[in-house]
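Try this one yourself first.
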């Protein structure tokens, strides 16, 4: 009997263990690139138990003896996902993929003052655009991708060679500062060409500051700042291949791969190649609608790891760009470069960049950064030769200190070296009114700066900064900055900022309209540096409930300039006259941006609008101020995007568009062409299929409704060398290619994809 009882007791005990045993979910959380997401959170919605992933994205979660479970997976910067698991997954390792949050105004950890802070805690209003947002547009070019960003517009400056820049709030690209990973390597010659060699596949995010930036970036960023943040080595797959093909015959291929990945050195290389060799003349003016381009860009990024955890890694990056482009008459070839028989504009560009970043292994937080760029350009604008060389060197040392969670102090010293030489009168010294001697433009700009991000109260934050630079040609430059932030609540933020600007101008490096066409370039005086005072007011509001998440952001801005350098196209049809404005220039406007994410359905909507009033003011003979609207500045812009994600089948559908109001254009005397462009719209569609391994395929349409500027935008395209101006030409028109505001490229079908390993 005792044995029977003992057997019964043992059987009951083991059965109870069997039926009450604890099941485990073993898993890993990854992103779209099949890379682990460290420290993601996993919550059991059935009993509120939870866990976190380790640094490799792996986790274990005990769920008891249940046969099914509902999980909630979340991570900073990613869209929260709910997952229902049945018994087939229990005690098995599973993979969970999270989508990056495409919200362009979502609270993110960003770098605004060389410190990683949350966007809501930055007194400087910064817009952050993720790689996913950039990839949702139909172009692999960063320049064209900016067309969907509020207040930004890619502007073509030449209808023949298709050079261009990016305008911020209607102001030319030369008034903005473009940096890569926080390093100011763009400027001068690269103002026109630099961004066009950066593929979107290389970019982690883009940060945009409109208006006065911090003292960190100096006084040149009058209109704003664009910081291109490249992907970190740890966030890249071992190998990726991106390709993009268009119906116009454009081919872009980008290969990225890790070359070293160990505990001492990490490194990757990206090779990007763009090719377009298909001259098209749809408007029948005998000129190429789109310039012919062959471009290769190589980007290398190294990270040297310390032997122990007490030191910091040393980051080193290289970038090389080589481009050959031309535009002109359809029968032009390189044999005609520099001739006056067939018109063509040919530009050969070679550029090399290097930049480093390192935190010194000392008790205090001291960072050292350096960059160097070499830009060579050999070009012919018909029979006008323009060769230029530019060197820019930059060194910066910064000290960071946090005091009692109240003060985030930043102090630093920097020096910039600039060398520029070309074959124009810009670098010539005339002796005794006869002999011209080559004199390259060379200057140093050492400076010191201090900044305090002061948390006055939980609702009040003040960013104060002062910078003093010394220009070897123009003396001392003072640059104060002040930004104030007031949090009315967790969902309502007010910001106001002020700063001034100082800019030394080199006409030929920034304005290639001075070289194209048949006009003579005239300088009425020695050009003085431009000065500006800038103010920006911003209000951001957030609303969230079970159905939607809404962000509304509105801004008012104004910049007033003195000594602004204005190209005069109107006084003489045969000349472009440059002089400092005898008066003042004013750039002001308002903008608003709306983002809506619907929670029950996977739809997100973003829309923005900007209204501009940019003009120059001069006194007439009666001391009355005369207003003249700035050339190539739109009166308003409206942009929108709708994204629909079918997560179950991995389909992403995007529709985006932009609408621009009238733009003032350079016209000739008695010109039959309109002084202002008509309003126009561009519509784009894109469908992307994403696979679980991170690969994707896409197709789309750019400029779906086939908008192009007037076919007669190029004046007297039949006589580009003005050899027949005396024949049937009562208005004395001359060849002119500066009447340009949008691309002549019409509807364009694209196909591409990404392959990851």
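Now uncover the answer:
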């Amino acid at each position: 009997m005792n044995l029977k009882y003992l057997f019964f007791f043992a059987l009951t005990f083991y059965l109870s263990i069997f039926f009450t045993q604890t099941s485990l979910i073993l898993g890993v959380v990854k992103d779209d690139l099949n890379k682990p997401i460290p420290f993601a959170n996993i919550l059991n919605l059935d009993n509120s138990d939870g866990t976190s992933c380790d640094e490799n994205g792996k986790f274990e979660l005990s769920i008891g003896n249940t046969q099914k479970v509902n999980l909630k997976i979340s991570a900073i910067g990613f869209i929260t996902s709910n997952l229902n698991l049945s018994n087939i997954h229990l005690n098995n390792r599973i993979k969970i993929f999270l989508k990056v949050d495409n919200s362009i105004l979502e609270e993110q950890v960003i770098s605004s003052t060389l410190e990683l802070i949350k966007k809501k805690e930055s007194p400087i209003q910064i817009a952050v655009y993720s790689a996913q947002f950039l990839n949702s547009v139909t172009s692999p070019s960063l320049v064209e991708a900016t067309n969907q960003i509020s207040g930004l517009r890619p502007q073509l400056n030449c209808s023949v060679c298709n050079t261009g820049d990016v305008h911020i709030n209607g102001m030319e690209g030369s008034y903005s500062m473009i940096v890569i990973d926080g390093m100011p390597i763009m400027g001068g010659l690269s103002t026109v060409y630099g961004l066009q060699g950066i593929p979107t596949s290389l970019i982690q995010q883009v940060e945009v500051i409109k208006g006065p930036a911090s003292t960190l970036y100096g006084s040149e960023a009058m209109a704003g700042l664009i910081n291109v943040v490249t992907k970190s080595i740890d966030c890249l797959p071992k190998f990726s291949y991106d390709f993009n093909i268009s119906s116009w015959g454009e081919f872009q291929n980008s290969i990225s791969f890790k070359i070293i990945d160990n505990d001492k050195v990490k490194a990757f290389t990206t090779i990007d190649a763009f090719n377009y060799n298909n001259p098209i003349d749809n408007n029948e003016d005998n000129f190429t609608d789109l310039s012919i381009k062959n471009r290769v860009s190589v980007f290398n990024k190294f990270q040297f790891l310390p032997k122990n955890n007490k030191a910091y890694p040393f980051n080193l990056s290289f970038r090389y760009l080589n481009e050959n482009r031309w535009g002109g008459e359809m029968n032009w070839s390189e044999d005609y470069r520099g001739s006056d028989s067939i018109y063509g504009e040919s530009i050969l560009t070679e550029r090399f960049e290097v930049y480093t970043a390192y935190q010194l292994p000392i008790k205090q937080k001291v960072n050292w950064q350096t960059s160097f760029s070499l830009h060579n350009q050999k070009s012919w604008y018909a029979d006008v030769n323009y060769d230029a060389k530019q060197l820019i060197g930059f060194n910066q040392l910064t000290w960071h200190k946090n005091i009692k969670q109240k003060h985030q102090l930043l102090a630093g010293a920097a020096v910039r070296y600039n060398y520029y030489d070309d074959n124009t009168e810009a670098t010539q010294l005339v002796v005794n009114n006869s002999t011209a001697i080559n004199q390259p433009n060379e200057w140093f700009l050492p400076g010191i700066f201090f900044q305090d991000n002061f948390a006055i109260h939980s609702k009040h934050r003040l960013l104060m900064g002062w910078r003093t630079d010394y220009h070897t040609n123009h003396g001392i430059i003072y640059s104060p900055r002040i930004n104030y932030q007031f949090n009315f609540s967790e969902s309502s933020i007010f910001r106001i900022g002020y700063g001034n600007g100082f800019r030394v101008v080199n006409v030929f490096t920034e304005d290639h309209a001075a070289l194209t066409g048949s006009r003579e370039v005239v300088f009425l005086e020695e050009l003085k540096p431009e000065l500006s005072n800038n103010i920006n007011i911003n209000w951001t509001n957030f609303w969230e409930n079970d159905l939607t998440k809404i962000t509304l952001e509105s801004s008012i801005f104004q910049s007033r300039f003195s000594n602004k350098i204005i190209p005069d196209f109107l006084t003489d049809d045969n000349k472009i006259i440059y002089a400092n404005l005898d008066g003042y220039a004013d750039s002001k406007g308002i903008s608003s941006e709306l983002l809506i994410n619907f929670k029950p359905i996977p739809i997100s909507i973003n829309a923005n609008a900007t209204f501009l009033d940019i003009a120059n003011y001069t006194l007439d003979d009666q001391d009355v101020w005369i207003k003249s609207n700035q050339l190539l500045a739109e009166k308003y812009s409206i942009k929108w995007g709708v994204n629909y994600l079918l997560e179950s089948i991995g389909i992403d559908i995007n529709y985006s568009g932009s609408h621009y109001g009238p733009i003032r254009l350079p016209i000739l005397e008695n010109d039959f062409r309109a002084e202002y462009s008509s309003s126009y719209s561009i519509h784009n569609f894109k469908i992307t299929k994403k696979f679980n391994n991170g690969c994707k395929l896409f197709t789309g349409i750019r400029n779906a409704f086939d908008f192009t500027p007037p076919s007669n935008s190029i004046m007297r395209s039949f006589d580009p060398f003005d050899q027949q101006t005396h024949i049937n030409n009562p208005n004395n028109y001359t060849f002119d290619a500066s009447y340009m505001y949008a691309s002549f490229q019409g509807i364009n079908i694209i196909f591409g994809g990404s392959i990851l390993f």
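Discussion: Residues 229-756 form a domain with the Maltoporin; Chain A fold (CATH 2.40.170.20). The mean pLDDT is 83.
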